[in-house]
Design goal:
nine-stranded mixed sheet; alpha/beta; single chain; Alpha-Beta Plaits; binds (2S)-amino(hydroxy)ethanoic acid; 23% strand; Aminopeptidase; 33% helix; binds manganese (II) ion; 15 strands
């Protein structure tokens, strides 16, 4: 039975971790940044050295093909992949594992001449973490990007996508050319760390994902009046930050109480304007994120959160601005891909369990154009999106072998 080279995979994980490495461990490698572009160049060299056809599309997606040099309906390909961009102060496996295990699987297939009827490819999708707009590269590839919005897309710190791409040598106005021809992808399967505690606590080595949550992000701003922080009587103040603070606490309760038990919410971006200590905040702005496996529940929470924002503003004599930013839809994973993963686990003698993904992934875009699925391995302590994110080497090897055999089954 063919298996991957765990040492070669491990050494590539460590090499990729060097791009944007932080002194205390972990990595910061936002898409289009200099360290990300160095990682991209390194990856294209590794793909070529592994004997794969290598190309980069207009949306910055990197591909390595085995029996494939471009996507077309004449030769539908079995695709794997993930992303090499990271969150700030993130871990070295989120995304990187799926890209490098995909490379390792294709290289092993080529070296062993393992039979496969369909061509195979591995992808590194641009800006999966959505610094400029969530799941950007796979959304473009799957024809799901609203192209009229590209000019306006920007990070929360204001940096525009067009400028970030231009600095990396890409023309954002041409991303539409990255859309894959219809029928070009026969199936998609992605290996990823679970990023949560369920597999480790259940003592099960492999997760077979059956659905992926939808994620909604909304910018909510409470607008009052700047005033002198010392001389303005307390009852006269119209404090934008306090509106945002009250909303944040009540929005959390709303989602916990009325989210059906699987919905979650987070507010990780807060800005106060003018933002100096001796002025009553005129403006308190936050990005409100909600996630859940059920689209209807998410839509209902959205409506209730907007009503909450308006009632907080009214009570505090503030204006409120509610701007939807991005909304991904929950995606079901294809039964055919889940069955292939199950069969690969049986071949390798590994226990598995089905679970939904509480993180968003590129696979939810691929699910719109082909049969898509995901393989999870346990995260130590469920830790992710933090510098001490890690998984056991054995878990990484098991995941890569399940990916290898799943790809062979899907490409047979
Ligand atoms: O945020 C997420 O769910 C993923 O890690 N991009
Ligand atoms: Mn992530
Ligand atoms: Mn990820």
């Amino acid at each position: 039975m063919i298996t991957v080279s765990a040492s070669r995979l491990q050494s590539r994980i460590e090499a990729l971790a060097g791009f944007g490495a932080l002194p205390g461990g972990g990595v910061t490698r936002p898409c289009w940044s200099p360290q990300h572009e160095q990682a991209r160049a390194w990856l294209t060299r590794e793909l070529s050295a592994a004997g794969l056809e290598t190309w980069v599309d207009r949306a910055g997606n990197v591909f390595g093909g085995l029996g494939l040099h471009a996507f077309g309906a004449d030769a539908p390909a079995v695709l794997t992949g993930s992303h090499i961009d990271t969150v700030p102060e993130g871990g070295i496996l989120d995304g990187a594992l799926g890209v490098l295990a995909g490379l390792e699987a294709l290289e092993t297939i080529r070296e062993t001449n393992a039979p496969h009827r369909r061509p195979l490819a591995v992808a590194a999708w641009s800006d999966e973490e959505g610094r400029y707009g969530s799941l950007f590269g796979s959304r473009t590839f799957c024809g799901r990007l609203d192209l009229t919005r590209v000019e306006a897309m920007a990070a929360v710190d204001g940096e525009r996508l067009v400028d970030a791409m231009a600095r990396a040598g890409f023309d954002a106005r041409r991303v539409a050319e990255a859309q894959a021809p219809a029928g070009a992808v026969a199936a998609y399967v992605e290996l990823h760390i679970e990023q949560g505690p369920r597999l480790e606590e259940a003592g099960i080595p492999i997760g077979i994902v059956d659905s992926i949550v939808g994620v909604r992000r909304t910018r909510v701003a409470f607008v009052g009046q700047a005033d002198h922080a010392g001389t303005t009587p307390m009852e006269r103040r119209r404090d934008g930050f306090l509106g945002a603070a009250e909303y944040a606490l009540k929005a959390r309760d709303l989602v916990v109480k009325h989210g059906g038990g699987k919905s979650v919410t987070n507010i990780g971006v807060v800005r106060v304007h003018p933002g100096v200590t001796n002025i009553v905040p005129a403006r308190g702005e936050l990005v409100h994120e909600m996630r859940g496996p059920d689209a209807e529940t998410l839509a209902r929470l959205d409506r209730r959160a907007a009503a909450l924002a308006r009632s907080v503003a009214r009570r505090r004599r503030l204006e409120v601005e509610i701007q939807p930013m991005t909304a991904t839809t929950p995606a079901a994973c294809a039964a055919r891909v889940q069955r292939a993963i199950e069969q690969a686990c049986r071949t390798l003698g590994l226990r598995s369990t089905h679970l939904y993904s509480a993180a968003g992934h590129d696979a939810q875009n691929l699910a719109a154009i082909t049969d898509a699925g995901m393989i999870f391995i346990p995260s130590k302590g469920g830790r992710s999106h933090r510098v001490d994110e890690t998984s056991d080497r054995e878990a990484i090897e098991r995941g890569a072998n399940v990916l290898l055999h799943t790809l062979l089954l899907l490409a047979a």
